[in-house]
Amino acid sequence: MQDRIEELLAELDLAGKLRLISGAGLFRMAGDPAIGLAEMPVSDGPSGVRGENWDERDPSVSLPSGTAIAATWDPALLGEIGALIAAEARRKGVYAVLGPTMNLHRSPLGGRHFECFSEDPLLTAEMAEAYVRAVQAHGVSACPKHYVANDSETDRFTVDVHVGDRALHELYLYPFERTVEAGAWMLMDAYNAVNGTTMTESPLLDEPLKGAWGFDGVVVSDWTAVRSTESAAQGTDLCMPGPPYLWGEPLAEKVRSGEIAESAIDDKVRRILRFAIRVGALDGTPQPTPVFTDAQAQDVVRRVAAQAMVLVRNDGILPLAPGTKIALLGPAAGEPRFLGGGSATVIPGHTITPLAGLDGRLPLTHTAGVHLSEDLIPAPLAIVIDPETGEPGVSVRYLAGDTVLGTQHRTTSRLVLLGEPLAARSDLVELHARLRADTAGDWQIGFGGVGHIRLDIDGETALDENVALDSGDPAAALLNPPQRHVTRTLAVGDEVDVRVVTSIEEAMPGLGIILGATLGIRRPQRADDEEFAAAVDLAREADVAVIVVGTTEQIESEGVDRTSLRLPGRQDELVAAVAAINPRTVVVVNSGAPVEMPWRDDVAAVLLSWFPGQEFGAALADILTGTTEPGGRLPTTWPKTTADVPVLNTTPVDGVLDYTEGIHIGYRAWLRAGIEPAYPFGHGLGYTTWSTNDLVIAGRTVSLTVTNTGDRPGKQVIQAYLSRPDSVIDRPVRWLAAFTAVTLAPGESRIVTLTLPRRAFEHWGPDGWEIEPGEFTVQAGTSVTDLPHIGHVC
Ligand code: BGC
């Protein structure tokens, strides 16, 4: 391959080389027909493949998010997930999937916590490595991100993370090291700076990434993370998005003048050519991937979602007996979060809410009980008609002056114009629909968006405003734009003609990141107190109350950190009120990251669903009825209160976020502080019972006899932790060294053997990796605080 790369490089002049090291488009790497190189689309990632555009007409399978995947504690599952992701990538013509996201859960406030795997570097590394291997086995590149220390969102473009060498190597770099070992073809560097240098120019790209670890793939910048033309002399290889800006003509001048050596550019081009050969964009065709039918894809998502759900408490109420009459309550029962907000968003072709999934499986009554948000929602398809076609949906027109450049029938009222070619040539876009009221009362009708926006209702201008971008972060501006509305009183069946006309706005001028607009509504609804009381009434009459609570896209998403771990709205109050009148209450928590659960000891069961992907309701029904047992274990510690969390802060001071806690994050910090969390790392229950016996240590292997002592099949996750009580260096109280998931039939026993890797014994010293001579303590069991088996290893 090397000869071929040199041959191709020799055919390129400076302009040809520079074309390749910047994107050709928002999600597209450049090609060069003269050397037979195709343009190479890439896509977010990581929990599904959106494709180049954000368009409901080309939907994607929505998979469980990072925390859910890690909660399976089962890297073997990534085989199926990776195959599905690769299949989706190929279907969408994509050569690289921008994932996995593998920053650490340093603070539970981190807005992208849901997208990352865990607070523990080993669990993160195992899942990330399996992801990379599984996707790339099918000829599609993965792209581990964001290198490195991009563990929170506040001031993410500018924050300078100060982190010591030891924590950097033992915690934050380690998962990346493992994905490089796994052969990652591409890796994304982060927006933030580390120890004074922005990551797209960081010396960490040379050492350890390209030096000691031998990474021979492409380092792609996070989108718009390249800050200067001079940065081309440093380790980032590909500046995204395109078309070329800082590395375009300004860079050509600097190379011609000798200010930047052409050899630095050549190294980047070699890497891009190597990548192109690997993914089949040069000298060949892409490797065929497996093909999934819709039913097969749905089956994978449903099984993984159930494997990921963590039952943290169960007094025996679950699984529910057939015929149990449930009151299904909570705002997320009918309007759950399937996936996290931000660049990880995909548009699934179908989704199953808890309400839809449980309907027909158990007799149920339903009301939300709490109105979670005062915001408009995109007008649902069921109540909008495209006036052009008469079909459910919206008519979208792209206008340049008086010329109509194009008209589309769309089946969404939320238009995201990222990558829409017509938008790039228009100055106005219009969403037009007939809205048919399905509820009588006061309707809010309006829009979400940025720019000069007009709302016409029945041909009359109702609003006409210049709406300013209220955040410098394009992700936030895209997904959570300002909203405006008017109120109209409608009877059931009334129709109004609604038109939203918006100027085309760029999130970052010159970069082609174009925002969108939403035609939004809010239906008339019961007054808050009435709705709350209705839910409590339903709970009183039911055998069991199932309450699905959760976060919102406003508080848990890319681009923002949370300020508290409390559930929004009156959700805590609802659970407390329901539990007070019906102790047979099961709470399902639909969040990507920890939330406070002040009522947790007063309810019969608590199940954490994470963001489980499009089959949420089906997987939940499987678990509640006992068709499947919940297979998850906590990949991160769940606190009792926000104030208890030992490492919380995500707000930089004078631009600096200091990781003063060093190597003590997650359960390491909890153990050191001696504070008891609500539920510890590694904890999770199933529906059977277990015994673990007979610890045997041989060299650096640990074996335990694991027995399913119950009467149904089940999964257990055996975990081994090391500690070093009399160490001469600062150590975590204990740290995860190995784990394995085991599934056993009723009565079945198995000897489970864990190999403790060399790295588990090493620490990062002044001269690199070292092992402190002497004995380490090993403890084995089923969570970081349930470790009945103790021995010693050297
Ligand atoms: C995110 C990346 C993402 C990229 C492209 C950035 O804002 O941080 O994770 O891959 O956008 O959408």
Automatic annotation (TrEMBL):
It holds the Pfam family Fn3-like. The keyword Hydrolase applies. One of its GO terms (molecular function) is hydrolase activity. Signal peptide: none annotated. PROSITE patterns: PA14. This is Glycoside hydrolase family 3 C-terminal domain-containing protein. PANTHER family: BETA-GLUCOSIDASE. Belongs to the glycosyl hydrolase 3 family. Residues 389-536 form the PA14 domain. It comes from the Bacteria. Keywords: Hydrolase. The lineage of its organism: Bacteria, Bacillati, Actinomycetota, Actinomycetes, Mycobacteriales. Transmembrane segments: none annotated. SMART domains: Fn3_like. InterPro entries: Cellulose_deg_GH3 (IPR050288), Fn3-like (IPR026891), GH (IPR017853), Glyco_hydro_3_C (IPR002772), Glyco_hydro_3_C_sf (IPR036881), Glyco_hydro_3_N (IPR001764), Glyco_hydro_3_N_sf (IPR036962), Ig-like_fold (IPR013783). It comes from Nocardia fusca. Gene3D superfamilies: Galactose-binding domain-like, Glycoside hydrolase family 3 C-terminal domain, Glycoside hydrolase, family 3, N-terminal domain, Immunoglobulins.
